[in-house]
Design goal:
By secondary structure, the chain is an alpha+beta fold. It has 3 domains: 167 residues, no CATH class; 138 residues, Beta-Lactamase (2-Layer Sandwich), CATH 3.30.450; 252 residues, Rhodopsin 7-helix transmembrane proteins (Rhopdopsin 7-helix transmembrane proteins, Up-down Bundle), CATH 1.20.1070.10. It contains 12 helices and 29 strands. Strands 7, 8, 15, 16, 17 and 18 form a 6-stranded mixed beta sheet that branches. A 5-stranded antiparallel beta sheet has the order 20-19-26-25-24. It has a 4-stranded antiparallel beta sheet with strand order 1-2-11-14, with no helix packed on it. A hairpin with a 6-residue loop joins strand 7 and strand 8. The longest helix is centred in the C-terminal third of the chain and has 70 residues. The chain is rod-shaped and about 145 Å long. 31% of the residues are buried. It is a multi-pass membrane protein. It is found in: Membrane.
Length: 664
């Protein structure tokens, strides 16, 4: 009230302050002498004088507190006084605010066995003790206290059940001053309660009396709402909600925490002299409350996640209703979350909070090919089967290199091509497992370099055929290209590819990138680069080589098979071109997941390498078989002819001899 009276109920205790202001101890006014010895040691109940400590607040009247129009309402009248800070030289006393034990109906009491200890269980009774939990409260102080009726009435019940004293005047509390200034009902901003140091808000409304036709402001009725209740509710409501967490904080900087579902307190009590040291006993130490911003929370594992989510929303300008992604930490592979925030506001009041809801994302299994998935088996089968089949074809081909049919087919470069096919199928195994920076780099280097290693023997092979017998210049002069010279022609392809891979490994290396699809709550980890320059460069380089090979193979298609494998080369290069174009179109025009793209790549490699290798090897094996069959048939025919000739000689000669004999 305006005279300093305060009556409060903070379950399971009550609190009361008699009316009065600060007073000087050297010349104590008569009306304040009764308060000199009413303060009490909270541990053992020893009576002591109520002396203002240096820096504490007190109220002092202005002009004898003659009524004047209120600041917020000219039709209302208020007492004028000022809020001051005590200094030790002033030697001031104060009217104490006393904390009381109460019974089940809220009456101050020190009756043994009548005191409630739990507001939610009034059947649980105890005795009122001081802080040592040994000394029972037994206080009887006589005087004309207002609690007893005033008007000089002497009583000894004002401090019955009072176990603690504090220097407190509601008139210098913010919630009281604002209500008086604005002369209207209102919500306070969050602040630490004086009694418990808990953070909360207060709804207050002014009340008046009519005296001599004047509307006189008498005080404030207030209800406190502790955020501890909100904190407990959030903790209970979201403790088993599949990882969903909630953070409520103020809308304005520094975004003090109102409460969170982790249960971490939104403030801590520390020593006034050292804000880093916890205050263990506010009754004997000068303490203050330090509120926590989201980044200050750390007691619960989810506190950091909530803080990082709040920071992400802050960076985006707090878009209301928009899902934003964040990570548990900066470590690669750490859990990812999505969060959304809304503003809770009561218009024209001090209540404007931001409610942040955070939930974990689901890691997409289709971003990688790992054990246990069907695609893992498919990819292993494609890579292993392709490598084994190409190896078998190479061995079958290489063992017959001295056979005339293989010897005239330029077997050295054909063998190099098939070995490249084996290695290219082996690169499929780098597609297995989770995407990491190392794996992303290996996948790019192995695939693109082995493509050139596989294609280059085929390209120089068709180029030599074209140069020797296909170009117009070759028709008028003799031209020789040795195997060594042809092998050297492959080196520029390797150097260019190595240069491309090396340059982009520095300026835009492939890395494992994490991104979160907020619309579907999925956490993706894929290999990616900052831009498409590398893909475009490789597409142009590798595509140009395949196109050149197709052109040379086409121009050489009608050459006599005795000069080389023109038909096989044509089929192989066109097969590679077709598979390559089809793979690029499917991967870019369809919405495939990363793992599906890997399987597509593995199948494309299998088809292109195995079929192309078969074109070279099987045709020569068939030719060898036909040649062997022809030689076998020829040998049989000659033998039969010889046998027939001998038989005829045997049969004809005797008659001839007979004829000759007859002639002779």
């Amino acid at each position: 009230m305006e005279d300093g009276t305060f009556l409060g109920y903070f379950a399971p205790f009550g609190t009361y302050r008699e009316p009065g202001d600060g007073f000087r101890m050297q010349n104590v006014p008569a009306k304040y002498k009764k308060f000199l010895g009413t303060c009490v040691d909270p541990y053992n109940g020893t009576q002591k004088n109520c002396i203002q400590e240096d820096g504490f607040d007190y109220i002092e009247c202005i002009d004898d507190c003659v009524l004047e129009p209120c600041h917020g309402d000219a039709d209302s009248w208020c007492l004028p006084y000022q809020h001051k800070k005590a200094i030790s030289e002033d030697d001031l006393g104060f009217v104490p605010r006393t904390y009381y034990c109460i019974d089940e109906i809220g009456t101050f009491t020190e009756e043994q066995g009548a005191v409630i200890s739990d507001v939610f269980d009034t059947s649980s009774r105890t005795t009122c003790y001081f802080g040592d939990n040994v000394t029972p409260v037994n206080r009887t102080i006589s005087g004309d206290f207002l609690y007893c009726g005033g008007d000089g009435e002497i009583c000894d019940g004002t401090f019955v059940g009072g176990y603690r004293s504090r220097n407190y005047d509601p008139r210098w509390r913010t919630w009281y001053k604002e209500t008086k200034d604005y002369q209207k009902s209102m919500w306070s901003k969050p602040y630490p309660f004086f009694s418990t140091f808990e953070i909360g808000i207060t709804y207050s409304t002014p009340f008046y009396s009519i005296e001599d036709d004047k509307k006189i402001f008498k005080g404030v009725l207030a209800v406190d709402y502790s955020f501890e209740v909100l904190r407990a509710f959030l903790k209970e409501a979201y403790s088993d909600k599949d990882g969903i967490s909630v953070l409520i904080c103020e809308e304005s900087n520094p975004y003090y925490v109102i409460g969170s579902s982790t249960g971490t307190k939104a403030a801590k009590t520390v020593l006034l002299s050292d804000l880093l040291t916890p205050c263990k006993d506010s009754s004997s130490q000068k303490c203050t409350v330090v509120r926590s911003a989201p980044n200050d929370l750390s007691e619960h594992p989810m506190d950091i996640t909530l803080a990082r989510a709040h920071s992400s929303h802050k960076q985006e300008g707090f878009p209301s209703g928009t899902w934003i992604s964040s990570k548990e930490s900066d470590d690669f592979g750490s859990r990812a979350f999505i969060s959304v925030s809304f503003v809770f506001e009561i218009p024209n009041e001090n209540l404007r909070w931001r409610i942040l809801t955070v939930m974990p994302t689901e890691k997409v299994a289709m971003d990688s090919v790992t054990t246990g998935s069907t695609l893992f088996v498919v990819l292993i089968a494609a890579g292993l089967l392709g490598a084994l089949m190409c190896t078998a074809l190479f061995l079958a081909y290489y063992r017959r290199r001295f056979n005339y049919a293989v010897m005239v087919s330029d077997w050295r470069f054909t063998s190099a091509f098939i070995i490249g096919c084996v290695a290219l199928n082996g690169s499929t195994f780098f597609l297995l497992g989770e995407s990491t920076d190392v794996m992303c780099m290996l996948r790019v280097w192995s695939f693109h370099y082995l493509i050139i290693a596989t294609l280059s023997p085929l390209l120089v092979k068709v180029w030599r055929i074209y140069q020797l017998v296909g170009s117009s210049a070759s028709r008028f002069r003799r031209h020789t290209i040795s195997h060594t010279k042809l092998a050297l022609f492959m080196l520029p392809f390797h150097f260019v590819q190595l240069a491309i891979l090396t340059i982009f490994s520095f300026i835009d290396p492939p890395k494992a990138k994490e991104w979160i699809d907020s619309s579907s709550n999925f956490h993706h980890v894929t290999c990616a680069q900052n831009n498409r320059a590398f893909r475009i460069t490789e597409l142009i380089f590798e595509g140009s080589l395949v196109l050149i090979g197709c052109i040379l193979a086409y121009k050489s298609r009608k050459l006599d098979p005795r000069f080389g494998e023109t038909k096989q080369i044509l089929f192989s290069i066109y097969n590679i071109c077709f598979i390559g174009v089809l793979t690029v179109l499917v991967s870019n025009l369809t919405d495939l997941e990363e793992a599906q793209t890997f399987v597509l790549q593995a199948i494309a490699i299998f088809w292109a390498t195995v079929i192309s290798s078969c074109a070279f090897v099987l045709s020569r094996l068939i030719e060898i078989k036909r040649s062997n069959a022809f030689r076998s048939n020829t040998s049989t025919t000659n033998l039969q002819q010889n046998e027939i000739s001998g038989d005829l000689s045997f049969r004809i000669n005797p008659p001839q001899q007979s004829v000759v004999s007859e002639k002779l």
